[in-house]
Amino acid sequence: DAGVIQSPRHEVTEMGQEVTLRCKPISGHDYLFWYRQTMMRGLELLIYFNNNVPIDDSGMPEDRFSAKMPNASFSTLKIQPSEPRDSAVYFCASSFDTPSPLHFGNGTRLTVT
Amino acid sequence: EDKVVQSPLSLVVHEGDTVTLNCSYEVTNFRSLLWYKQEKKAPTFLFMLTSSGIEKKSGRLSSILDKKELFSILNITATQTGDSAIYLCALTYSGAGSYQLTFGKGTKLSVIP
Predict the structure, then answer these.
(1) CB-based contact B42 A107, cutoff 8 Å
(2) Which residue from A42, A45, A91 is facing B106, i.e. has the nearest CB?
(3) Of A37, A76, B8, B96, which one is least surrounded by beta carbons within 10 A?
(4) Do A98 and B92 count as a contact with CB atoms less than 8 A apart?
(5) Chain B residues with CB inside 8 Å of A4's CB?
């Protein structure tokens, strides 16, 4: 089991650019979660999917953020246009069921200058 | 307002000490409470506590859940420098028609030799 795989590990971009973060969940896990972590706000849930369908996107900060899950093995989180306040570590996590423990990827550290 | 409150925010102890980390919560439709350890990268799962499993133990770590008083504690005995990490408490519950999972802001534990 390779675990949850995220790419890239680090992303540095300029304000206004589009950023795409990628995630491959653990095979067989029906739930996929996107989290953002900052010192000030801790871990915040952005959106989660069940069987590739978005269930709750109330944590998505604004229309600049969008997420897709075209199939059971891949999800993207896109920010367009990016802003400096989007700088954070973005984690993807998956779980077999609810309320099963989440398995986290190693995160993408995003820096927007 | 925060549904999950952890205390203390940070803690410094010497090797061999025993520590107790606190997590209080306030939700209806509780489903489970989870503890995670986060070192430099992704949070890793420690325990899950539910109505049917209110006490867990693994080696030097143990946790209990008090559903009446709405809190949980994580105990670490004979601490080691490798226990230095951020410990996160997470709550799962049913709300707004969907499954919800919220993290506290964490307790940063530093164990010094």
Answers:
(1) yes
(2) A42
(3) B96
(4) yes
(5) 42
CA distance linking residue B20 with residue B41, whole number of Å: 23
Length of chain A: 113
Span B38-78, pLDDT tens digits: 998 899 999 999 877 789 999 999 999 998 889 999 999 99
Residue B97, φ and ψ in degrees, nearest 5: 80, 5
> What residues are paired with A23 via a beta bridge?
A6, A75
**Are B45 and A102 an interchain contact pair (Cβ–Cβ within 8 Å)?**
yes
Instruction: Calculate mean pLDDT across residues B84-102.
Output: 85
Helix H, strand E, coil C: the string for chain A is: CCCCEEECCEEEECCCCCEEEEEECCCCCCEEEEEEEECCCEEEEEEEEECCEEEECCCCCCCCEEEEEEECCEEEEEECCCCHHHCEEEEEEEECCCCCCCEECCCEEEEEC
Q: The tokens of B110 are what?
A: 């530093």
Average pLDDT, chain A: 94
pLDDT per residue over A16-55, tens digit each?
999 999 999 999 999 999 999 998 889 999 999 999 999 9
